[in-house]
Design a protein that fits this description.
disordered N terminus; alpha/beta; 13 helices; 3-stranded antiparallel sheet; 5-stranded parallel sheet
């Protein structure tokens, strides 16, 4: 009986959001509702590697999640945020809250997907599909209503083209045919509103679903277009939102003329995003581009009104 009680106590200690200094964690609001994790549920499903390591590191449920949007720059954001010494990031997209086969395995499984982190570090995971999945906001809120969320968005039209380009390249790599952008986007002379990529760019629709569970001040919107053009100011805003000490500097970024976008410099080591990032979009008829811009004009206005700010989108 004593052994069982000790195990419960160790697990509960492991799952606490450990502050980086005495007092409340810098990323938590004083007086905010406590996370509603259930230690008993986690105890039943906790992985064998869940124990605290001799150096004090352990797996922690995320303190913040990059919820989207697909082809909005989530990987770039995660890599840049990982420059901060107080951030521990999950390597892969976990898809816990949107894939039933993962969600059924419980928070113990989710915890096992997180990286080992020191007590003072903030754990981050990113799964871009969360933003557009209707069932995810309630599930995330059920895990921790005090969570801070990061959402990175781009010009909706450009995001659609990036979405198409990714699927096209996936088919090309598998030597499978795929229709042209015109065939996908247009049906009967009109935009194909059933095309999933168009729906993913209706940002106001998806954000309203999140705002049913999280107040706007808990969702920081990163301007993905600005992050590409000038990453440092956007990352500074993210540091402030997450209440991290300002550790990332302008010297951590350099423009790679060959690749045509910014790469990262960390402790003398240079690294760029995978070659699959920043692919050139297919040539699109100007008339079709105009149709795209027209289609998103009203949805964009609704989104600007919802968040109380504007973006430099067509």
């Amino acid at each position: 009986m004593a052994t069982l009680l000790l195990g419960v106590a160790l697990l509960a200690a492991q799952l606490q959001l450990v502050p980086s200094r005495p007092g409340s964690a810098p990323w938590a609001d004083p007086g905010a509702q406590e996370p509603v994790w259930k230690a008993a549920t986690l105890l039943d499903q906790a992985p064998p590697d869940g124990a605290v390591a001799p150096n004090g590191s352990a797996r922690q449920l995320p303190h913040t999640i990059i919820i989207g949007v697909r082809k909005g720059g989530t990987r770039a954001l995660l890599e840049m945020l990982s420059l901060h010494p107080d951030v521990a990031a999950a390597e892969n997209e976990v898809h816990f809250f949107d894939w039933e086969e993962h969600y059924r395995q419980g928070l113990g499984w989710y915890l096992s997907q997180m990286p080992l982190s020191a007590p003072h570090q903030l754990t981050v995971e990113k799964t871009p599909a969360y933003f557009t999945s209707p069932k995810v906001p309630a599930r995330v809120h059920g895990m921790n209503p005090a969570l801070r969320l990061l959402l990175i968005l781009r010009d909706p039209s450009e995001r659609v083209l990036s979405d198409y380009t990714q699927v096209l390249y996936n088919h090309v790599q598998k030597r499978k045919p795929y229709p042209s952008i015109e065939e996908v986007l247009v049906r009967g002379g009109r935009l194909n509103v059933d095309y999933k990529a168009l729906n993913r760019s209706l940002y106001h629709v998806h954000l309203r679903n999140w705002l049913r569970f999280f107040p706007l001040h808990r969702i920081h919107i990163v301007d993905g277009d600005r992050l590409i053009r000038d990453p440092f100011p956007e990352i500074q805003k993210v540091e402030r939102f997450l209440r991290l000490s300002p550790q990332i500097n302008a010297s951590n970024f350099y423009f790679n003329k060959t690749k045509g976008f910014y790469c990262l410099r960390d402790g003398g080591r240079d690294r760029c995003l995978h070659e699959s990032k920043g692919r050139a979009h297919p040539q699109v008829d100007p008339k079709l581009l105009h149709k795209l811009h027209e289609y998103f004009h009203e949805p964009n206005k609704k989104f600007f009104e919802l968040v109380g700010r504007t973006f430099d989108w067509h």
